[in-house]
Amino acid sequence: MTHMKTKALILSGVVVLTAAVSSTIAAVSYLRPEPQSAAPQVEQPQPTVSTPPATIEKLNPPVSTAPSPDPARLPIALVDESVQSPEFVKFLDRTKQAVRDRDAKYIRSIVTPQTKFSFGAQRTINYLNPENPKSSFWTSLEKALALGCSQEASGYSCPTVFQQFQSALKPSSTDLDAFSAIVVVGQNVNVRSRPDGNSPAIATLTNEIVKYDTTTFQNASEQEKSETFRLDNPNGWTPVILSGDRRGFVASRYAYSPVGYRVIFGKEGGEWKMQAFVTGD
Predict the structure, then answer these.
(1) How many structural domains is the chain composed of?
(2) Are the C-beta atoms of 42 and 55 separated by less than 8 Å?
(3) Residue 68's domain spans which residues?
(4) Distance between CA atoms of 235 and 229, rounded to whole angstroms?
(5) 3-state class of 53 per DSSP?
(6) Cα(279)–Cα(281) distance, rounded to whole angstroms?
(7) Whole-angstrom distance, CA of residue 186 vs CA of residue 34
(8) What share of the chain is helix, strand, coil (3-state, %, to 5)?
(9) pTM over 0.85
């Protein structure tokens, strides 16, 4: 775990990468979509002769059973295992509603003195300022809960991206790792030529793992780093690299880092509690 920390620094939901990676692109098959409280914003590209047609970008697509024709793509199954426990599903639904309502009182009720908010110095929930409805804590938690959960030894980890991404890479020959990849989740998600919804689409992705564009992030202005290129900003953009060294931007609402924010729930005293809300590895 220690040697992986040196590869990247993740600050305020922004992934900063230092490792060189290949341009390998992987496909993702998402099993059991989680219903959303509100449909994601539909982006309509400006059609031109040289760009893909208008597409509908939708989070949590249905299962695709057709095998990938590209052998270079690495299949990965993002399975929502929370359905195994109706009791947990009920708790999770209540937690999602609290996040939509920005209900700090409820969040504090499921946090304990042992809840971990950092891999370093011990922090409390106060550090994340849940009483402020505009705190990035809320958008990060909302995103973490959007893709379902993976079962852990003593509970569940949400989203599924972290645990199942790691498992999928073990038998592969790709040099992508959790710090150098972005998982794009959705149907026909546009990759834009610029971080602007009105810019031309250079490609579309459906449930795929792509390389994070470290160079573009590092060369960005401080304002772009702190605002535009944030994974926890639902209106932000994530720079990515496609095959052939093509560079573009994906709407951050569809982009997940395998080592981005995740929340771990477990039972304590017979009740479900938030045991950790951390980023990194």
Answers:
(1) 1
(2) no
(3) 2-278
(4) 10
(5) coil
(6) 7
(7) 12
(8) 25, 25, 50
(9) no
